[in-house]
Structure formats: structure tokens, C-alpha cells
Write a structure and sequence with these properties.
Layout (H helix, E strand, L loop, with lengths): L1 E2 L3 H5 L8 E4 L11 H17 L4 E7 L11 H14 L5 E6 L1 E3 L8 H10 L4 E5 L2 E2 L1 E3 H15 L7 E4 L5 E2 H12 L5 E5 L9 H10 L6 H9 L4
Parallel strand pairs: 1-2, 2-3, 3-4, 4-9, 5-8, 6-11
Antiparallel strand pairs: 7-10
Helix pairs in contact: 2-3, 4-6, 6-8
Length: 230
């Protein structure tokens, strides 16, 4: 059973299972600080836990938990609170900490989508220098998650998994790749920020390579998918 109707929820249709509840709804904007939105998601999760006693619960949290620039943000603190709520329940569960998920029709506030839309439509934006982000296709998230459910979760000592790309990408490289792909010049101002990059852990890196492969140009793969219907 899939809760939600967004980018991730639609991709999960490929692995839908009546014995699993995928919670793919709730707050997905990392800049959110609206307590009403947080409470709405909390109440949703509580209701799902109450109504699905004998099912595996799969919750999508955030990889930003490891980001020193965001670790104390309302969004991250909220996600940690939901993780705690689920982990303290009597359910079998998997918490999937995902990074910047990209796909056709994804969240326009997502970093990659924001930059892509701005360059495509000649809109000025702010480019953070020395800043890295982890970007992953939604279909690859589902493939990795399915691998975890089938091969890892049952015997794992943890029920929290990072579902991320095997490497982080400099934001400036994302901009340059989009410029080249669209053959358009980006309009932006620089903002120098202290690097808050954190390396991908070896287990998550190996999992990505084993399931998806070690992509030589992952950004091109993303851009080809985003523009295939243009």
C-alpha cells in the first residue's frame, strides 16, 4: 500500500505490496518551518501505525540529517521526531534517508529542479560556491529500496538505511552540466558558503554500485530523463 501521490509514490507502484505500507506523503520541502504541516504529517503517521499493526512500515526521511548546515533546522528536527515515533512503535519498519530525489514532475523546490527551471527560463538564481549535494533519480531510489527490503532488512542490525548516490556533486558542476545540456547560459550571483559536505558512507556507496552501477556521468543520465519529452 502506498500513501501519497507525488514523485516517489508514483515510482513505488513498481514494487507495491499489500504487506507493506510505504509512507510517501508529508513534508518534503527542506526549507519548511510550518508547524501545521509538521503536525499534519505526524498525525498521518500515527494513524497509519494504528491502522496497520501487522504490516511493514517504510518511511522516507532525509539524508540532510548529516548536513551540518541543516542538522538543527525545523525540517530535520521534525524528520528525526517522526523517525523516533516509528522506531518506538511495535511495528517492523524501514526508515529510508533519501537525498535530493530527481525525476520528471518532481518537487520544483528541489535544488536540481530549481536550478534546471531557472536556467531553462532565464531566471536569475544564487549559486552557492564550495557546496556539494547528493542527487539521485527516483527510479534508482526505488531499486535500492527494493534491494534493501528483499536482501538486507530482515537480517540487518539497523532499520535505518541511507538511500543515496555513491558520490556527492559540487553544485557548480550541476549548473555547468545543465548549461551544457540545454545550451543556455545560467544567470546567477555567487554566494560563498562554508562547505558542509559529508562523504557518503562505504555501505551506502557499495549498495548503490551493486544495484545501480558506477555511473560515469550520472548528471547526463538525469538530464536525458528530464528532457526526453521536451
Amino acid at each position: 500500500m502506498i500513501i501519497g501521490n507525488g514523485l516517489i509514490a508514483k515510482a513505488l507502484l513498481k514494487i507495491d505490496n499489500p504487506n507493506i505500507v510505504f509512507i510517501a506523503a508529508g513534508v518534503s520541502d527542506s526549507s519548511c518551518n510550518d508547524s501545521n504541516n509538521f503536525l499534519r504529517e505526524e498525525n498521518l503517521v500515527k494513524r497509519i501505525l494504528e491502522e496497520n499493526k501487522n504490516k511493514l512500515i517504510v518511511y522516507f526521511s532525509t539524508y540532510s540529517i548529516y548536513d551540518l548546515a541543516l542538522v538543527n533546522s525545523p525540517y530535520v528536527l521534525h524528520k528525526l521526531s517522526i523517525e523516533k515515533l516509528i522506531s518506538e512503535s511495535e511495528h517492523k519498519y524501514i526508515i529510508s534517508r533519501i537525498s535530493n530525489v530527481v525525476g520528471v514532475g518532481g518537487n520544483p523546490k528541489n535544488l536540481f529542479n530549481h536550478i534546471f527551471f531557472s536556467i531553462k527560463n532565464n531566471i536569475k538564481f544564487t549559486l552557492w560556491q564550495n557546496c556539494y549535494r547528493n542527487v539521485i533519480l527516483v527510479d534508482d531510489v526505488v531499486k535500492i529500496l527494493n534491494h534493501i527490503i528483499l536482501n538486507e532488512a530482515e537480517n540487518s542490525e539497523t532499520y535505518i538505511f541511507n538511500v543515496v548516490n555513491f558520490e556527492n556533486t559540487l553544485v557548480e558542476d550541476i549548473v555547468n552540466s545543465i548549461q551544457s545540456h540545454l545550451n543556455k547560459k545560467a544567470i546567477y550571483t555567487y554566494k560563498d558558503v562554508e562547505s558542509n559536505s559529508f562523504p557518503v558512507d562505504e555501505i551506502s556507496k557499495k549498495r548503490f554500485i551493486d544495484v545501480i552501477g558506477e555511473e560515469s556521468n550520472y548528471l547526463s543520465k538525469i538530464l536525458n530523463i528530464l528532457t526526453q519529452n521536451d
